Amino acid sequence: MIEITLRVNGQNQKVAVDDPNMPLLYALRDDLGLRGPKFGCGLGQCGACCVIIEGEAARSCVTLAIDTHEKEIKTLEGLGDLDRPSRVQKAFIAEQAAQCGYCTNGMIMTATALLSRRPRPTETDVREALAQNLCRCGSHARVIAAVLRAAREG
Amino acid sequence: MTAITRRSLLCSAATVIVTFSLPRGAEASVNTVAADSVDGYLSVARDGGVTVFAGKVDLGTGARAAIRQIVAEELGLSPGRIALVEGDTALTPDQGSTGGSTGIMVGGVQIRQAAATARARLLSLASASLNRPVSDLETSDGMVVARGDGGAVSFASLIGGAAFELPIDKTAPLRNPDAYTVVGTSYARPDIPAKLTARHAYVQDHRVDGMAHARVVRPPAIGAHLNDVDASSIADIPGAEVVRIKDFLAVVAPREWDAVRALRQLKATWSEAATLPGSDNLFEAVRATPVARVEMLRSVGDAPAVLDQAQRVIHATYSWPMQSHASMGPSCAVADIRDNGGTVWTASQSTHRMRWTIAKLLGLDGAKLRLVYMDGSGSYGTNGNDDVAFEAALLSRELGRPVRAQWMREDEHGWDPKGPPQLLDLRAALRADGSIAAWETVAMPPVNTPNAGIPLLAAVAAGLDDGRGSQSGFTGMNSDPPYAIENVHAEVRWLATTPLRVSNLRAPGKIGNVLAVESFFDELAAAANADPLALRLRLLSDPRGREALERLRQMMNWTPRASPLERTSDLLEGRGIAYVHYKQAENYVAMGVEATVERSTGAVRVLRVACAHDCGLMINPDAVHAQVEGCILQTLSRTLFEEVTFDRARVTSTDWSSYPILTFRDVPKLDIALIDRRHERPLGAGEAAAAPVAAAVGNAIFDATGVRLRQAPFTPARVKKALDEQAT
Q1: A residues 100-119 lying closer than 8 A (beta carbon) to B
Q2: pLDDT tier at B23, thresholds 50, 70, 90
Q3: How far apart are CA B690 and CA B478, in angstroms?
Q4: Calpha distance A73→A53 (Å, rounded)
Q5: Which CATH number fits domain B210-272+326-415: 3.40.50.300, 1.20.1280.290, 3.30.2160.10, 3.30.365.10?
């Protein structure tokens, strides 16, 4: 049993890890009760589990929890809330850029990381940044519009 | 534990599962879930807030906004004062499954009539209280208001906290659509802000005290029997346990990751099985399958005789592969079975039916069993949600504690019931002038038993079900042409079996059928050297269908000419259209596609999709727009990329690399024209625009290349092969 410290959304959280192969996703969802990162594939293919680690979008389903000891982790909860959504969340709400919303965590986290390194992306930049984030409902056009809106209104 | 009633739940805060908020005072007024009573659908609380109880659910479609708008409009109050409970079997009437794009068309219309009946009663109560004739009264903002002197009385004081005790009056007058102020506006979906800030609980997020995390261990081959399990192989995992019932095998553990570890680590031996034809031989197997029943879909004139004597007959065979619902989030459910009943939290599209299915299979008292709907990942038909709900219930009963069952990615792709394979033979007789003398379709989908549900994996494995049922939707519809042709023979040969377990998948059967009909129609247009749009209009009299096509003509800047274009470059560009009158009874959709085909690689790129869409009255145009976008993009994905592969034993496309779908790189420009028909009945928007997508893409490929693709998906390999064959 190893105890690790995760700095999640600005707070230090201790998690007991008895299997070093446990992905971060299970620490976030199961131990810390977070709902933002979603289990989609467990294979790093779909992006539903995205979080931001030290400023970079990362797939929490293929990131070992022990490798994130004392690292800064941001989840969808940490971007903003109903009263104060982040600019990306606000833009997604304005564009109604979700259907079932299950993949949207990954879209917002990836877009947030994109805009922090490239504040004025082109549409092609947005498509490329999100190319590994899958959506099954077909909300893609609205997601692209929302990210461009967030950049514009940022 | 006694039978669960709406009153017992609403009166006891301890048992109310707070996945929704109810206005205060809703508790006393209603204790019925009867589908023919006003109280079944709505109640007015003491403070005047209204709660709507809907048996059908919002699957990410916007129904959660639209149902509120419908009730707000009919009653006369703000949609923001309406709470909505969806799909909870203890609280809502059984309005049937959420599917077939019937959420508004059937479910919403029932609720609208309940609201109209309620409004009539409110007016009559106010008439007595204000001493004014009903004809002088109007409802507005939760009040009944008298014209002229402005006397007013609130809904709350008229009936707040009390029941209507009224059957739904089918003749209760509806609001005049010309006076709509809420219906027809793009009221924002109330669930989106919470979903986008992680404040919304999906069923995958639901937790119950003391619950175990479960994973089901699937056999290595469909139909394999479990020989032996070595429980000691997971002895080192804290709290992990094995549950076995005949061929049903599962592991549970207190922590979720430990359940996953146990799943990977458990040693079990299974018998061998090789019952499948393999996906490479799918359509040979389909053609060799016995026919269970023949349905004459449409018979006009004498097509077989005309075809027999015709000088010029064109024939073609089209096919559509097996496809997965491929939900982003693997299916999940939580169950707490106790005292011969209990609760199951589920994203099932059929909570009301599943309540009785689970009760029957487990020998529970259905009156004591409650299914609570919670949002899941988009399902687009019966995905794994019904299976996993039963698995959670079965495990909870076995273990005597709450269980959360969660599928893995390989479960969802490998074991969800699949969209059925489709094979269609078409023939047409052409006259000397190129006009169509006769048309014949023979469609061969697997047999469908409506409302039967599908055989649940765990029920079959545990020996509780024989696994023989089959339900995959009305997959024969739209296999007949929507055009005025003198001799038409369209028959559906319902096949006795199909290789994998099947279920309804968005626009069941219609995408493949329209691919066949609308591509074949283009073949006939090309044979006659006719413009495909002009030929459709010539043979179509329905004014709503014609308007959709005329709108598409403008959107496409259509210049009349026959297909294909004659071009010699490597990157070929083409245009294609397709039309559907959905189920020959519902929406009118005209779709146009502009695409390029790279001759050297066979890669198809869809640049633009234009769609003219008529679904009657639109409750919420932005939600309709979103559904049409979803229909187009998901079906482009199915058209270009998706095909379930399997060997003799099992499905082999079990993740996103072996079953790729559309990505952001593949998204075309979308131009969608929504035709406003506020005096027509509202139809669904979740399926119809899916139906013509594949045909429009296939027609664009033909226009660009002169090559006709008759088998989806249109992968580069398949397109390249067809191009190479053309060259030789």
Answers
A1: 100-105, 108
A2: very low
A3: 13
A4: 5
A5: 3.30.365.10
Is B377 at the interface with chain A, CB within 8 A?
Answer: yes
Tell me if residue B97 falls in helix, strand or coil.
coil
Q: What is the domain partition of chain B in residue ranges?
A: 6-173, 210-272+326-415, 508-727
Distance CA B704, CA B601 (A): 14
Is the Cβ of B206 closer than 8 Å to some Cβ of chain A?
A: no
In this model, does residue B1 exceed pLDDT 80? Answer: no
How many whole angstroms separate alpha carbon B247 and alpha carbon B227? 8
- First vs last Cα of chain A: how many Å apart? 44
Q: Which CATH number fits domain A80-153: 3.30.559.10, 3.10.50.30, 1.10.150.120, 3.40.50.720?
A: 1.10.150.120
DSSP state for residue A27 in the 8-state scheme: I
User: Cβ separation of B191 and A101 shorter than 8 Å?
Assistant: yes
A24 in B contact zone (CB under 8 Å): no
- E strand map for B210-260: 212-216, 226-230, 241-245, 248-253
CB contact under 8 A, A42 and B202: no
Tell me: the pLDDT tens digits for A81-99?
Answer: 999 999 999 999 999 999 9
Residue B388, chain A, CB below 8 Å: the answer is no
- Fold match between domain B210-272+326-415 and domain B508-727: yes
Partner residue opposite B633 with nearest CB, options A22, A36, A138: A138
A42 touches chain B (CB under 8 A): yes
Query: What CATH number was assigned to the domain covering residues B508-727?
Result: 3.30.365.10
| CA gyration radius, chain B | 27
